[in-house]
Structure formats: C-alpha cells, structure tokens
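STRUCTURE:
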C-alpha cells in the first residue's frame, strides 16, 4: 500500500517551477502571479534557512530537501540527496534493536493513519558514514489530491553530547562521593559490616557529613538532615561543618589543640579536623547549631579521607545525637554515685565474690563487723572467716540453692579478726549479667551477735518467768490445799457446834466464826481462781443445768442480806428463756454471785435486780442477756476504766467503807471471756450501775437432764437431808487431817453409814482393805507415806477390788488432777468441802453398779 502511495506521489511532487495556476476557471492576473512568485521566494528562503532538515519522501526515496537536510545527511546537492532513500542512510537496526526497515514502515503507517508521528531515528551520513541521532516528525500532506509525506529531522547530536557530558559529570560526582564513602568506611571505626554502612549513611540516627579537602560539605545524609534540620541542597557546596557548629566551642578547641600541638589553629574547621588530619582517631562532643536555632549535643567521630597516595581528599564527620545519652549518662552517674554511697554507708555488710569465690568487693560495714582491713579480705576466699560452728547442713543448703541459681538466706557463725565468733544473718544471691549468666555472688550480712545474745537472754527470762508462774501456781495450789483443809474444819465444826445447844453468847461467837471463815474461804478461792486464770489453767466444766435452780440459789443466797439493807431484790427470768441449758453452771453462778453481791454491797436503797432475757433462739442454742442492775452509788467513767484491773478498787477513799479484795470483777470478766463473751458496764454516778453480758448456750437435750445437780453447799444442808441414806454401807475414808476426819465421819454417820473406817494414808488404806471388805473408798489425794493416786493403783492390782468404787476427795481439783485420778483407776472425783447431795448422788451411782 505504501509503495502504491509513494508511486502516486512521485509524479505530482513539484514545488518548482510553479505552473501558471488557474483558479475556478478564471485567468490569474499578472499582479496575482507576481504576488504568488514573491510568496514562493519568501517561503523558499524560510525553507532553506531552517536549522531543521526538511524533506519530502516519495516512493523511491527523497524527492525534495532543504539545505539543512543536505548538510545533515552529508550530500553535496539536491540531486545527490534525492538519490537516497531514508533506509539507505539508516543503520541496519535502530537503538531499540528493531531493524530499520520494519520500523520505518511502522512509522509511515502511523503517519498515514494519524496525520503525523514523532520519533527518534539513527542515520549515518552519506559522505563519511558517521552515525547521528535525529528527532523525526512525519506529517502527511494533501497536494493536488495526492498525499505526500513531509519529514522534519532535528539533529539531536549536540543535545546528546551535552547530556552525555552531564552524565559523565554526574558519574564523576557519584564516583567522588563513592570514594568519599568508601574512604570514609575504610577509615571509619564502623567499617566492619555492611549493616553498619547502612546504619551510617542511610540511617536517620547518624549524621554523616563528608567534606572535600577544603572542608566544603559534599555529602549530607538523611541523618544529618533529620538532626540539623537543613536539607542536603541547602548545605552541599555551600557550608563547612564549622559553620553549623558552636563557634565558641570551636575556638576553645582550637586553643587547646594549639597548646597541645604547639601550632596555631586559626579556623574553626581546622579545629574540627586537626587531629583527624594527623591520623589520630578523634571522637569528641560537638554542639551543632540546627536550622531552627536549637543546639544539639552530638558525639562526633572525625576521620580524614585519603586517596591511594594517602593524600587527604576530604573529611568525614559521623555524629550521633548525644543529648539523651548525656542526660542518661548524668543520671546514671548520679545513680551510680548514690548506689555506691548507699553501699558504703549501709549498716549491713556487703560482699561481692566471683564464681571462684574470690572476694572482689566489701563495704565499710563488712570491714567494721569483721575487724579486718580491706586488703586482708579482697581476693581471699570467704572461707577465711568461717568458724566451723555453723552446722554443716546450712552450707549444704546454701550451695544447693546457689548452684541452682536461687538466692539463699540463713544464719552463719563466722570469726572476726580477733577470733571471736559473730553470728551473721546472711542473704546470698547470684548476680546475673544481661545474658542471664551468673558472674558473681552478692552477700549481704547483718551482724546479729548482740541480738542473738539478747534473744537468748529473753528466752531464758521468759522460761524463768514461766517457771516462776508455774511455781507460783503450784505454790498457790498447795497453799490453798493447806489452808482449805483447816478452813473446812473450822467451817464444819462451827456448823456442827451451832447445831448443839449453846448459851446465846457462845452461839453468837460460833455464828461469827462461821461467817468470817466462809468469807475467808471466798477470798481464798478468788486468789486461787485468779492465779489459775492468769496461768491459763482454768478450764470450763460443761454440763446441763437449770436456770431456775440457779435463780433459786441466788435468791436464797442474797435475799436475807438485801432484806436486811432494806433493798428490793429481783431475780427475773423472761418467760421465753429455756430452762435447761448446757454450760459451766458453777462458774456462771460465781460470776452472777459476784455481780449481785457488788450490787447489794454498793447500794443503800432501792432495787438490785438480775434480769435474764432471750436475745436469740434456735433449736439448738439460746443467746441470753444477763443484766445486773442496781440503784447504788454508781461509777464514774474514769473509774470504769479501772474496773477490770486486778486488785483495783475504783476509789480507795470510799471503797474502804466496803469490804472486798478488788478481784471479783477481774475473775468474773476472765470467766465470761472464757465462756466467749465480755462483761459491759453502764453506770451513772450516784444513780445506777448495770453490769451485763451475753452468753450463747446450747439447749440441753432431754436425755441429759437426769443427772442435773441441784444446789446445795454446806454441811448444814447435809444434816437437813434424810438420815438413813447410807444405811448398811461400809465406807473406808482416807484422810490425813484429823479435823477433816471428824467432820466427814460426822456427816457419813448422820447419813446412816453402818461402818466408817479412817485411814491416815494410802498404805493404811491397803492394810484396811486386807483386813475387811468395804463398799466404797473415799480417797483424799494428798497424803503422807502413800498418796491417793498410788493407793488407787495398788488397790486395782488386787483382783477382788477390781470393781470397788473409789471416789477421790480433794480441795481444789484441777482438770489435770481429774485425769490423773481416772488414770490411777478411780471412779469419780468430788471437791471438798463436801457437798452432801453431790456425795449422795455419786455414791448412789457407783454403789448401784
Ligand atoms: P470488790 O468488790 O471485791 O472490791 P470487785 O472486782 O468486785 O472487787 O469490784 C471492784 C470495784 O469496782 C469495787 O471495789 C467498787 O469500787 C467497784 N464496783 C463494782 N461493782 C460496783 C457497783 N455495782 N456499784 C458501784 N461500784 C462498783
């Protein structure tokens, strides 16, 4: 198609001579013709004057060309030019690698299709074959109904040369930079790895500034841009690094270097690089002045960059922002200082040893504790101070812990320089490096020798005081036994005597003896109770009891006294309170006796009342409130604070008017606490007092009610009881005290015992049993020659007396005593003075069996 087209174009292509033109059938006038000829001349002049080569293309090659075209293609004239086809003047392939023929076809097709097309094309000159590059613009033109192609060639050789020059220059520049980098790296202490290269030149964390030999900046990396705020374009070829630094600092550095090297350093830049230029590795702190006016403390390493002949071609300054590090360093230094001061001034001894157990560090306290000087200890094995007194297991445990990387603490007994033993509370822990490996052992020691001695003294003192307390309790128990025995005799005899017909005066005396001795017995019991409570030896004896019996007892006890003082005595139990409960009725009675006794004692008119009310109740438990109220003298708040302190009567001034030991409330409070509660006081001076406490008591199941004791206390009550209760019973009584023997005999006789034999000790009991049969033995525990326990054990060894009831009789029986009695084979225990009804019920129980 192209060939046909080119063929068609070949003929009509004629710009000269222009034939006489006839337009629209008109004849063209001469003037028009002249105008046209002028226009042609002008066009031809422009055409030939163009710098670009303009040509027309026909089927077989160029058919027209301007001067520039001939000059470009190396043709002497138009004829020579028109003998060529563009393909003749093109190399076989174009720059892109496609063959010239195929590619020219492609561009002509494109031109015919689109009207024009622009591309680059390689030609070679017709005269000397030199290849040149052109930019070609093809346009299709309609001439006299035929289409021709106009070619404009723009020679690109000059531009390419400039570009090539520029490229070479750039390349050279790049090469220079590369050399600078390479040299920089070669010279730099960071040259080791490519990672570091990257880090230095591409990292934002390092400022890398390379200069030429004169100090003018050639490289300014991203890190420098980030740190100083300038862009590379703003500083390269313009500034020296000195311009970007604190001048005063550089001047000072120049002065120092001048002195050090005996030279005159005048420029700031010289100060920057002087040592580097001498080949001395130089790292120092430099203050950069950033673009925004701030100052940046950098640590800079300066290196001279040299060519292969060792001539300096530039300098490299690699910097890191040191502001933070400096702050951290200052803080760390401060911390280190504080730590070392703390270590040195610590009251605890501190020692650091390496893995071979060589001591590397000891602080002052360590030195003070052992009395050595530092040089004696450093480098030594801690074994040097071992006394041999620490038990082996301690060391075994210690090394087991340390070998497993655990900390250990314990007591070590070591020797000081004088050879004295010192006890050290020691903590040892492994010191781990950052990678987790153990490098040292840290041991912190406190010299506890004195404390240990004091502890030992305290323990000894405590033991002594405990022993003393035990001895005291024991003494009181013994004393109480010793005192109670004659007291029982006094009380018993006075009561027996009161039953006799006596002159009224003697009767009076006997009455007084009886009252006074009962009072003395109460005081004695209080003292004994208190010492038991203090020694923690007081236990509760729980059992079923009746609150109504307790009410009767209390009423019987106090009604006479209250009446004699003109007081109203109310003992009231709320109707919903269950009658039978489980508790230590004896101790509860003791507390209430004390509170009621006080109420009556400290009240001169009005009422003294005990109210027992129900606070809470379920199937198994009842919570009761016991409140003793009086309208007596009252107690001030200040006095109330002293109420429960032993031996304190709140106001000696007036209580001297009232008898008492000051022990009742203390004992009562302790007993109530033993029962799980507390006594509270509410009192108004001159108006009233109320002592109250709550008790949570289990309700007694019906099955337990059979053996409930009913109250009774003295021998007199026995004498009022039926007189034939022990008819036909043979009783052996072991009792060493003659007076007590008389009383017991009287009581037993009164109860109708058929045969009563007295034995003065355990040995006599055994002899009596050999000679006669008895139904029961009443056995005192504390007797000379053979005590009650041993006697019981001996009796049980005799087969025929295996079942013989043995009842222990003793004043002040403790729980321990009871257990001992049972262990010795006795059947029951009974406290002295004898409660006849209890005696009867116990005897009834065992004799039946
Ligand atoms: P005692 O009555 O043997 O002196 P207590 O321990 O029972 O010992 O009482 C201690 C003191 O508390 C009494 O001496 C008395 O000063 C005071 N006190 C106790 N109860 C009352 C009361 N109801 N009214 C006024 N004072 C009382």
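SEQUENCE:
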């Amino acid at each position: 198609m192209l060939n046909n087209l080119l063929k068609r174009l070949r003929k009509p292509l004629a710009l000269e001579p222009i034939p006489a033109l006839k337009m629209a059938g008109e004849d063209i006038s001469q003037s028009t013709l002249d105008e046209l000829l002028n226009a042609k001349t002008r066009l031809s002049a422009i055409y030939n004057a163009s710098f670009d080569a303009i040509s027309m293309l026909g089927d077989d090659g160029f058919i027209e060309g301007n001067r520039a075209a001939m000059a470009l293609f190396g043709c002497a004239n138009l004829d020579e030019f028109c003998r060529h086809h563009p393909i003749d003047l093109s190399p076989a392939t174009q720059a892109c690698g496609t063959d010239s023929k195929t590619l020219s076809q492609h561009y002509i097709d494109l031109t015919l299709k689109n009207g024009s097309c622009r591309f680059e094309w390689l030609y070679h000159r017709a005269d000397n074959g030199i290849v040149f590059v052109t930019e070609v613009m093809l346009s299709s033109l309609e001439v006299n109904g035929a289409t021709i192609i106009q070619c404009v060639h723009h020679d690109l050789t000059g531009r390419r040369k400039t570009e090539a020059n520029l490229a070479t220059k750039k390349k050279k520049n790049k090469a220079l930079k590369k050399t600078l980098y390479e040299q920089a790296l070669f010279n730099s202490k960071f040259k080791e790895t490519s990672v570091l290269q990257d880090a230095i030149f591409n990292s934002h964390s390092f400022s890398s500034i390379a200069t030429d030999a004169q100090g003018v900046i050639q490289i300014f990396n991203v890190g420098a841009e980030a740190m100083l705020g300038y862009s590379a374009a703003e500083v390269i070829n313009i500034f020296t690094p000195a311009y970007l630094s604190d001048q005063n600092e550089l001047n000072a550095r120049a002065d120092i270097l001048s002195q050090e090297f005996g030279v005159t350093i005048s420029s700031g830049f010289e100060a920057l690089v002087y040592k580097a230029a001498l080949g001395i590795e130089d790292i120092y702190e430099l203050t950069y002045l950033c673009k925004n006016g701030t100052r940046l403390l950098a640590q800079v390493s300066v290196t001279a960059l040299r060519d292969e002949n060792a001539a300096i071609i530039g300098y490299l300054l690699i910097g890191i922002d040191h502001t933070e590090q400096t702050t951290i360093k200052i803080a760390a230094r401060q911390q280190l200082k504080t730590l070392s001061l703390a270590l040195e001034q610590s009251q605890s001894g501190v020692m650091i040893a390496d893995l071979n157990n060589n001591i590397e560090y000891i602080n002052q306290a360590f030195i003070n504790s052992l009395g050595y000087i530092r040089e004696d200890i450093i480098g030594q094995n801690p074994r040097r101070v071992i006394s041999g007194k620490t038990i082996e297991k301690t060391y075994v445990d210690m090394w087991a812990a340390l070998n497993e990387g655990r900390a250990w603490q314990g007591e070590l007994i070591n020797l000081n320089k004088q050879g004295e033993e010192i006890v050290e509370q020691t903590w040892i822990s492994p010191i781990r490096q950052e990678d987790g490996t153990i490098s040292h052992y840290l041991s912190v020691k406190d010299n506890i020798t004195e404390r240990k001695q004091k502890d030992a003294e305290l323990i000894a003192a405590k033991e002594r005081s405990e022993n003393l307390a035990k001895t005291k309790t024991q003494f009181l128990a013994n004393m109480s036994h010793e005192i109670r025995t004659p007291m029982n005799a006094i009380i018993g005899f006075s009561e027996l005597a009161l039953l006799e017909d006596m002159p009224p005066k003697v009767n009076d005396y006997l009455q007084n003896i009886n009252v006074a001795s009962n009072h003395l017995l109460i005081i004695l019991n209080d003292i004994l109770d208190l010492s038991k409570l203090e020694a923690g030896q007081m236990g509760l004896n729980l059992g079923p009891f009746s609150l109504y019996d307790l009410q009767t007892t209390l009423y019987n006890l106090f009604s006479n006294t209250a009446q004699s003082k003109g007081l109203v005595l109310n003992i009231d139990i709320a109707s919903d309170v269950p009658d039978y409960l489980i508790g230590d009725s004896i101790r509860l009675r003791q507390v209430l006796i004390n509170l009621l006794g006080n109420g009556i004692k400290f009240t001169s008119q009005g009422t003294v009342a005990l109210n027992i009310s129900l606070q809470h109740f379920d199937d198994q438990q009842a919570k009761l409130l016991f409140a003793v109220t009086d309208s007596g003298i009252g107690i001030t708040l200040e006095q109330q604070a002293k109420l429960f302190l032993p031996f304190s009567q709140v106001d000696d001034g007036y209580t001297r008017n009232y008898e008492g030991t000051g022990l009742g409330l203390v004992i009562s409070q302790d007993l109530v606490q033993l029962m799980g509660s507390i006594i509270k006081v509410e009192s108004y001076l001159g108006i009233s007092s109320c002592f109250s406490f709550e008790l949570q008591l289990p309700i007694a199941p019906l099955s337990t009610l059979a053996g409930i004791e009913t109250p009774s206390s003295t021998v007199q009550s026995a004498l009022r009881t039926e007189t034939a209760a022990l008819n036909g019973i043979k009783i052996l009584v072991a009792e060493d005290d003659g007076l007590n023997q008389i009383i017991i005999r009287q009581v037993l006789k009164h109860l109708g015992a058929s045969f009563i034999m007295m034995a003065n000790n355990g040995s006599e009991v055994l002899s009596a049993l050999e000679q006669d049969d008895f139904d029961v033995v009443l056995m005192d525990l504390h007797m000379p020659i053979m005590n009650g326990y041993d006697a019981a054990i001996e009796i049980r060894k005799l087969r025929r007396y295996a079942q013989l009831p043995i009842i222990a009789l003793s004043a002040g029986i403790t729980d321990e005593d009871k257990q001992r009695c049972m262990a010795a084979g006795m059947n029951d225990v009974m406290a002295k003075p004898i409660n006849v009804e209890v005696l009867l019920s116990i005897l009834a129980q065992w004799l039946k069996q």
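REMARK: Residues 449-499 form the longest helix (51 residues).
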